[in-house]
Amino acid sequence: MAVGPGTLPTLHPVAGFRLGTTSAGVKTPGRQDLVVMKIAPGATTAGVFTQNQFCAAPVQICKSHLKKAMPSFLVVNTGNANAGTGKEGYQDALDVCQSVAEHAGVALDQVLPYSTGVIGEKLPTERIMPAVPAAFNALTEDGWLDAANGITTTDTRPKAFSLQFDYRGVLITLTGISKGAGMIKPNMATMLAYVATDAKIEAQLLQSMLSRSADLTFNRVTIDGDTSTNDSCMLIATGASGVEVTETDSELFEEFSNALDKVMLELAQAIVRDGEGATKFVTISVEQAANSAEALKTAYAVAHSPLVKTALFASDPNWGRILAAVGYAGVDNLDVDALQIWLGDTCIVENGGRAQGYTESAGQAVMSREDITIRIILNRGNKQETVWTTDLSKDYVSINADYRS
Amino acid sequence: MAVGPGTLPTLHPVAGFRLGTTSAGVKTPGRQDLVVMKIAPGATTAGVFTQNQFCAAPVQICKSHLKKAMPSFLVVNTGNANAGTGKEGYQDALDVCQSVAEHAGVALDQVLPYSTGVIGEKLPTERIMPAVPAAFNALTEDGWLDAANGITTTDTRPKAFSLQFDYRGVLITLTGISKGAGMIKPNMATMLAYVATDAKIEAQLLQSMLSRSADLTFNRVTIDGDTSTNDSCMLIATGASGVEVTETDSELFEEFSNALDKVMLELAQAIVRDGEGATKFVTISVEQAANSAEALKTAYAVAHSPLVKTALFASDPNWGRILAAVGYAGVDNLDVDALQIWLGDTCIVENGGRAQGYTESAGQAVMSREDITIRIILNRGNKQETVWTTDLSKDYVSINADYRS
């Protein structure tokens, strides 16, 4: 199940960035489950990673390799997260990097590994390493869609977005892919996402731009409140367009930042729309908060409430459950009589109770939509935060109870 | 669905405390849904209430009346929570109190109201007030079981516990009832609970004993992480036994405190065992924590993880999900290599990964039980905290999606 059609736009190739996808049979024989990405020399790469303290072996290696060198290769396997695998798992991830490094004739530090899938099982390096050459043979700048499919796990569809904008006669391209459907409550980025651009961006600036953008996009989506052990989000700037983004050129900087946010947000929201068992795409906007922290606390309390999520699944305008979640979010000295809660364009709560003139049918009309916006106006400041989430359906339970994931 | 047989022990009457149950047809015609409790003169009463800032009208009135006088009557209705009902709801609750006060010839302040049921609908005082006399006619010291049934909502069975202990030839009795099955993540007490004893206890001491005990019992159970707007837990000491509990007599104080904790814990755990859609009763014990806060953070992260809860429902020893939840609980500088996770008597995680010698079948054996204990040994201090919770089943979603509650 998923919300919306999930049709993909044209995925523009990014000069200097190639992707190759093949099958290593990590978990399922014949499945396309191994992706190698090749980054042209001179490119810069930035990454943000899970805050989960049980962070997986590949995440640990990504962080340490990024400190030492700019990467030339990214290698991604699905079907196995190589998380909770201790020292052996760390060595397994290094072995996969080593096989890529040897095949390409680069240093070990120039290879970054990524794994996603079931936690706690040994990475089958004996199947992954022999498949590396086939992934190299498949490398092409047109490999985005194959890679988008290649990194999926319980996803029901590939996730990708691409856009171009003209800057003084030069076309700048941003293209990205992401994956993830469950264990989604990113505390940095979500699951796996790779965005490449042919703009030229100095490494430190690239990192700050990625961190900022991830915070507004991937860090604002939640499906089940479970933060994964493997979340990784990468941004690669090949510079092939010859146009450099710097903070001094504020016009280009702003235009590029907006384009980046758009790509990142599309990729993040695509994960929510494909959330496990999702039948609704829910935008929760907390407005007029005293500060960002209380806005987010409130938004996540509502986004994670099983009672709100099951009411969303039922298309039941059970506004009392939203009100209760706002009430326990932990906002100090909340004046419940001063706040308002809106379901779409219908005010459901004001003066501490059901809004004047609210009718069940008006609420019903909003709740039966596929895309629902809940606005919570705290009326105690001017901060605003938005998070995106899904409902909690019987299928979510089936997906996570009936199959080992 | 519920865990365990749910058989009730003998409910010993408490001299000086009478209960009367009748039907007011609040939501369902003919249903026993109105309970009046009469407290003999000279008794002391203590209460703890929800921390939800949208606390319901009756909770607001309970707090204000308790400040002014010791109560003589408690009046409880189910079928309607009278929460999120604004000023009108506040007046409705006062009207019910007034009808009890007039019928009994006591002051308005001596009556405390309680409501539980759907949020946001007007309290049908026109049906509740006429039923008050019938509740009075039913008042009896043997009314515990009827009252236990009378305060239930989505509960599948009544919840009650009773014990007696001998103190220097005098039998001291504690008897209590509770209700609740969903919207259970107490931040004080859970839903409704009433415990009475014939011991004599000075009001301030009674309040501190109740607060302390609720913190160790009702405040340690969670079903769905949703803190209700109506949680109330009351402790009444009639003094009819003539035995006074004071802090100076440490032997009796300790014996009574233990008895109180036992009754409160039985009532709290009964709510978990009857959790909406529950098929498992899960004890989560976090040990060797640096402080109580991090122990509770870890315990609740595991207890609220939809992935852990669905794995419990599936009897799937998916220890990676427990590990992931511990990893995102927010414990600073957690040494993942130093901690251990135990499923019952089976060590599942150590040295940052799957425990040596752990076998799927060993984990499976524990997970297929109805009562499951998850022990998380952080190995960074000597604090220990325990919470009790349930699994997340398809029935939980059905119960909350298919019916308005």
TrEMBL record, chains A, B:
Pfam families: ArgJ
Compartments, as annotated in UniProt: Cytoplasm
Residues that coordinate or bind substrate: T153, K179, T190, E276, N400, S405
Keywords, ordered alphabetically: Acyltransferase, Amino-acid biosynthesis, Arginine biosynthesis, Autocatalytic cleavage, Cytoplasm, Multifunctional enzyme, Transferase
Main location: cytoplasm
Active-site residues, Swiss-Prot/TrEMBL: T190 (nucleophile)
Keyword Secreted: no
CDD domains listed in its UniProt record: OAT
GO biological process terms held by the UniProt record: L-arginine biosynthetic process; ornithine biosynthetic process
GO MF terms, alphabetically ordered: L-glutamate N-acetyltransferase activity; L-glutamate N-acetyltransferase activity, acting on acetyl-L-ornithine as donor
GO cellular component, one term: cytoplasm
Catalysed reactions, as listed in the record: L-glutamate + acetyl-CoA = N-acetyl-L-glutamate + CoA + H(+); N(2)-acetyl-L-ornithine + L-glutamate = N-acetyl-L-glutamate + L-ornithine
UniProt site (Cleavage): A189, T190
Transmembrane segments: none
Uppermost EC category: transferase
Known function: Catalyzes two activities which are involved in the cyclic version of arginine biosynthesis: the synthesis of N-acetylglutamate from glutamate and acetyl-CoA as the acetyl donor, and of ornithine by transacetylation between N(2)-acetylornithine and glutamate.
Record family assignment: Belongs to the ArgJ family.
Description of how the protein assembles with itself and partners: Heterotetramer of two alpha and two beta chains.
Protein name in the entry: Arginine biosynthesis bifunctional protein ArgJ
Species, as recorded: Amphritea japonica ATCC BAA-1530
